[in-house]
Amino acid sequence: QVQLVESGGGLVQAGGSLRLSCIASGLRFGRYNMGWFRQAAGKEREGVACITWSGGTTDYVDSVKGRFTISRDNGKDTVYLQMNSLKPEDTAMYYCAAGFSCPYTGNRPSYWGQGTQVTVSS
Predict the structure, then answer these.
(1) Quick one: pLDDT at residue 70?
(2) Mean of pLDDT values over 35-62
(3) Residue 54, Cβ density class (10 Å: 0-12 exposed, 13-18 middle, ≥19 buried)
(4) Partner of 70 at 20 to 30 A CA spacing, among 1, 58, 83, 84?
């Protein structure tokens, strides 16, 4: 059974930072592209960042470029999202995902985590 477990969300003031982590189990982590999606209240889920299985390629949605950094540790079956200079519009539930194209082409990931809430106050 595949499990993706996110952590690291919380409440932060605008301009602050958070680091999300996602630990995977039940899959050969090093063979999967991984990434982060988010869904704000009343909006559709959007892809935020992704990283290929080797870590050699990353891709970001334009709104987070220069502020967010995705990385992975295949030895720990973990993917991270470092979020700096957070803005109120970054407020959303953030989901870890596995098994989709990176750069993202819109295909649905094979696996999803339960999500971790990020709230940025102004």
Answers:
(1) 98
(2) 97
(3) exposed
(4) 1
d(CA 7, CA 99) in angstroms, rounded, equals 20
> How many CB atoms are located within 10 Å of the residue 89 CB?
11
What pLDDT score does 89 carry?
97
d(C-alpha 15, C-alpha 24), whole Å = 29
Mean pLDDT for the stretch of residues 78-107: 96
> Using an 8 Å Cβ cutoff, are 103 and 53 in contact?
no
Helix (H), strand (E), coil (C) string for the chain: CCEEEEECCEEEECCCCEEEEEEEECCCHHHCCEEEEEECCCCCCEEEEEECCCCCCEEECHHHCCCEEEEEECCCCEEEEEECCCCHHHCEEEEEEECCCCCCCCCCCCEECCCEEEEEEC
Rg of the chain in Å (alpha carbons): 13
